[in-house]
Design a protein that fits this description.
3-stranded mixed β-sheet; 394 residues; 14 helices; disordered N terminus; two-stranded antiparallel sheet
Length: 394
Amino acid sequence: MNTITTNRIRSIDFLRGTIMIIMALDHVRDYLYAGSFLYDPLDLTKTSGILFFTRWITHFCAPIFMLLAGTSAYLIGQKKTKKELSLFLLKRGLWLVFLEMIVTNFGWNFNITFPMFLFITIWALGISMIVLAALVHLPKKWILVVCIIIIAGHNLLDNVHIAGNSLEAFGWSLLHEQQFFTWHKEILLVGYPLVPWIGVMPLGYCLGAWYAAGYNPEKRQRNLLILGTFAIISFIVLRYSNVYGDPVKWSVQKNAFFTFLSFIKVNKYPTSLLYLLMTLGTACLFLSFTEKLKGAAVKVVSVYGRVPMFYYLVHIYVIHLVAMIASAILPGQDWKIWILTKPIWFTTDLKGYGFSLPVAYLLWIGIVVALYPLCKRYDAYKQANKQKWWLSYL
């Protein structure tokens, strides 16, 4: 029996919903955990196991979200001509870039003067969608070849660096190197260089062929299992070799557990081949194992997966507001510290603020649960008003 329900694919919604919930944990940790302003949770000389995994597990969110966006684009394209799909992806990509520069940037800093611009998740998603708008005119086999070349080969560029604050350095950073820049009085942080992200969404587009109407579900489940297993084995072999696929090598640590943490600590900025093998391979296995999964938990989690952009935008503002309220309540704190003038991850103004990790987890659960009725209501509104074109942009 197919997993398509009311024109939705349950396993995809469930996976997308799962990563959206996990994603909020990372942002709650950023804004509400005291240690966020002291050191990197992936720093093996300072972190604990639970803190490491609190950050590490959220690494699966962006690549899976990008992959599934491509899969959704393929399914949308089944009802459109290539020209119509290309135009839709182009317009939606430009809209996402606007959302990143204005709506999400304000959500991160709550500063109307816009002292900084963060080129991060939604920016990379938007540009990838614009690239996909061009690629859809090619045969799928050629799109797949382009994806493989970009994803497998981009680490050959790891030793190319352009220092300074020049336009050339900024352009290279947009492509392949995370950096800070200043432009007049604004701070520019390129957090998500476009390569290899522009290869992930088209890869998801190719994956979408397995979800087309009439495709055998058992064959899809088997293909996903094989592909996911291949990706994970490739990750283990390449990572163990320490030869290629990630600019940061793993090394023996103070004990076996921390050596394991070093092994799975792969590079996200820029995203490495090993990072994508680990995360996208896991995504394929998840989709395979949940192909026929049902139940109340699947139904609830899938609500978040059906309104991902709405949830993403709302949760940023909610978490930031909770941080401001917490600052107003805590002794010796000032809520105005949350009108940020530089990225939260690099500020020193917030030292002394925050909660323990268990409290941060409770706040994360509370925020996610509180957003459920809003997401469910918006999902129902979308389903009842499919004829309204603007709903496809949010």
